[in-house]
Amino acid sequence: MKKYLVTGGAGYVGSVVAAHLLEAGHEVTVLDDLSTGHREGVPAGATLIDGRIQDAARHLDGSFDAVLHFAASSQVGESVVNPSKYWENNVGGTLELLSAMRTAGVRTLVFSSTAATYGEPADGLLTETSVTAPTNPYGASKLAVDHMIAGECAAHGLAAVSLRYFNVAGAYGPYGERHDPESHLIPLVLQVALGQRGSISVFGDDYPTPDGTCVRDYIHVADLAEAHLAALETATPGEHLVCNLGNGSGFSVREVIETVRKVTGHPVPEVIAPRRPGDPAVLVASAATARDRLGWEPTRSDLAGIVTDAWEFARRRAAGDPAGA
After folding, report:
1. Residue 40 contacts by C-beta under 8 Å, 6 or more apart in sequence?
2. In whole angstroms, how large is the CA radius of gyration of the chain?
3. Which among 29, 42, 143, 182 is least buried, having the fewest CB atoms inside 10 angstroms?
4. Dihedrals φ, ψ of 117, to 5°?
């Protein structure tokens, strides 16, 4: 058994990873200020500390084997209008966390990074060597953290893995998406199926793709969690390993909408809207590095399965079930 600190462990991905760590027999402490996370999202068996990552030095000591770092501000639109919040939380907070880890002698880190570090690539298939050119402060803050971690590894022997997520979706039992505001396609379409929203907007239907709508790579949140556990075992002192996490194939906006119709049995009216500036036609991950270095393979790549898990969570939440509250 090992002991892990999970920052942001009351959020969507953090809660699922915390649950997987507990199921593997480890001791888990969650550090989360609950500003966007949910107290009921912390898995039973984990210890919750209500606090910010800027205060990690108060809670981190040599008894911890590693830190899994999810705590961050993560709304792209908000980052454009309030960039200082993203520099303070994502960059400043992580700087404090790295200092606390160094002082406590905790020498392993798994970092929740993002495909937003790549910006708007000309080639839709992204590898870890693709040009990083973020187009918003959120992506820029995550890329800055990746650079900070690389420096910490080189200078102080930190063992670190940055996992760059693509479109995380699905649910894991009582742990699912409940962002406010919601900006992700699958939960938005499910809101239409639930009658909580009148229609779904399709931003552009004239892209050079088979059905004219944007294609994106979706990864099940439980597959993502398994990659984090593999990263803990792979992290090597002095090395900063960066891995994309995705399925390596994409689904179009229309494929997602049609899958929701089939899974839920509900109509989903769609409204064609103008293209959003900067939306690439195709954005898909090459996960070859994760396969080679982590020994990781996604096993829940079926879109219908991803949507089914998300639908069950959304229905429970809409019905007031505490498991999906």
Report:
1. 322, 325
2. 19
3. 182
4. -65, -20
The Cα 271–Cα 203 span in angstroms is 8
Nearest to 136 by CA among 42, 73, 71: 73
10 Å CB burial of residue 90 (0-12, 13-18, 19+) is buried
* Predicted confidence (pLDDT) per residue in 128-187, tens digit: 999 999 988 999 999 999 999 999 999 999 999 999 999 999 999 999 998 778 889 999
Q: Distance between CA 14 and CA 109 in Å, rounded?
A: 14
Could you tell me which of 224, 117, 128 has the C-alpha nearest to residue 169?
A: 224
> Is 138 a known active-site residue?
yes
Mean pLDDT for 310-321 is 89
Q: Is 162 helix (H, G, I), strand (E, B) or coil?
A: strand
Q: Cβ distance 58 to 263 under 8 Å?
A: no
H/E stretch holding 50 reads strand 47-50
Confidence class for position 68, pLDDT limits 50, 70, 90: very high
pLDDT in tens, 210-261: 999 999 999 999 999 999 999 999 999 999 999 999 988 899 999 999 999 9
- The residue type of 313 is F
Tokens for 173, please give them. 């039992």
- Cα separation of 317 and 222, whole Å? 19
Of the residues 138, 165, 207, 218, only one is catalytic, namely: 138
CB 306 within 8 A of CB 171: no
Residue 41 structure tokens:
């999202």
Q: What is the distance between the alpha carbons of residues 202 and 206, in angstroms, rounded to a whole number?
A: 11
Q: What is the DSSP string of 170-207?
A: --BTTB----SS---HHHHHHHHHTTSSS-EEEE-S-S
Task: Say if residues 307 and 266 touch (Cβ distance below 8 Å).
Answer: no
